[in-house]
Amino acid sequence: PAPPNCPVPLAGRNPTRQPPREPRELRAAFSEWLATNRNRRTRGSCAAVSSLPRMKLIPGSGRFAGSSFAPLVPGLWEHPYLVRDFTRGLEGQAPLSETGHGYDVGRYNERRRSMYTSELFGGADPWAAGVPPSQRRDIHIGIDIGGPVGTAVHAVADGTVHSSGYNAAALDYGHVVVTEHRLCGVDVWALHGHLSADSSVRWRPGDKVARGEVLGWLGGTHENGGWPPHVHFQLSLCRPETHDMPGVVADAQHASALQDYPDPRAVLGPLYEGDGLFE
């Protein structure tokens, strides 16, 4: 049967709605594959990972030997990049242009205090908005790759377009493309957020996408939700209702979110070291 919609509530929707969960065995099979690939420090491959070489960059290609996935942002692998620590929010964070790096990376499963201050997340003062601590959405559940406006974002695998569109709220995704893939016999959806306007309008549901094909480009602040230019990449084992996924969750949804939205490093590669909640 087709997987149901995501069980973690999105902003603006009834937070008590809890659709049925995807069959446990399906999630377990994909989670086992994710863990195996991450532990071996390989880019995700549905082949027997024991036969794959260790991660090795092919000079000038931006791709890895033994990889079955195309790079999301090929230029990231061609030069040293900065891994951000957002556990204290934007405090002390210099703009990318001042760091000497061409690209930066924001981590999965990271608590980002005082970073999500728009009404979408309960405002700058969630207490005043009546949001209890357990419902404060501040745990990032995707991976961010930042770079110059206009940087191309590529499909990591063959698939189809599930949806695309514009999430207009302040600090939301802006323009989004969601793709659908069949990986290791499991349906997986990938959200690409904070893109340019011409990224989302070029696709229709059901359009075919090829591994390595350009899906879109990093958008500017006027079109990407008001953020420094980057792509938010998120995997989902639940079929989205539309071009949206909860990219930041609260403590109350944290455990289920880790099951429904697995670590993107399984397909992006070992962008940084460490597992578990960064806080």
Automatic annotation (TrEMBL):
GO molecular function: metalloendopeptidase activity
CDD domains documented for this protein: M23_peptidase
Signal peptide: none
Cited InterPro entries: Cell_wall_metabolism_enzyme (IPR050570), Dup_hybrid_motif (IPR011055), M23ase_b-sheet_dom (IPR016047)
Residue span, M23ase beta-sheet core domain: 139-235
Listed Pfam families: Peptidase_M23
Name the record gives this protein: M23ase beta-sheet core domain-containing protein
Natural source organism: Emiliania huxleyi (Coccolithophore)
